[in-house]
Design a protein that fits this description.
With 152 residues, the protein is of the alpha+beta class. 40% of the residues lie in helices and 14% in strands. It has a single domain, classed as Malonyl-CoA ACP transacylase, ACP-binding (Alpha-Beta Plaits). Helix 1 crosses helix 2.
Length: 152
């Protein structure tokens, strides 16, 4: 028996917006999203937001949100629409399996944020490296002697 997607969500997309920051909260993201969104459903979560609506409206809201803290806000497509019987926790019982993946991913984005911050940071004026001394290559006979001395 083929299960149907609830009609309310047909033709829509849902995206997760993760925030990994000490200066931006999910509440800050929600306020920012409401500034430009009329036709999307915004749900605040422990990790950020869940935004559902027409793709162009969702993308516009996300573009506006990301300006708040670009190196600490990450976006991911939701695989199934809300209420989809294939993944709805009302049908499966307990937490939706994808949330355990979110918990793992949020641990990774912390490192990605640090890398983005370093790339965007002002270059520091460190002293130039001293020139390297020229060396002569190791003689092949000497290399063989060293290897033979190590091998029992």
């Amino acid at each position: 028996m083929k299960q149907k997607i609830p009609p309310l969500y047909q033709g829509t997309v849902t995206k997760y917006v993760f925030v990994e920051s000490y200066k931006t909260t999910p509440d800050d993201l929600a306020v920012r999203a409401y500034e430009v969104s009329e036709k999307v459903m915004i749900k605040e979560t422990c990790f950020g937001l869940q935004i559902t609506g027409e793709e162009s409206e969702v993308d516009m809201a996300i573009s506006h949100i990301r300006k708040l803290d670009p190196s600490h806000i990450f976006v991911k497509d939701r695989g199934f629409p809300p209420g989809d019987p294939r993944r709805c926790r009302a049908n499966l019982g307990g937490a939706r399996p994808g949330y355990f993946g979110h918990e793992f991913e949020i641990g990774l984005v912390r490192w990605i944020s640090k890398g983005i911050d370093q790339i965007n940071a002002e270059p520091t004026s460190s002293p130039p490296l001293p020139p390297m001394e020229e060396t002569t290559p190791l003689d092949i006979q000497r290399l063989k002697q060293l290897i033979d001395a190590e091998v029992p």
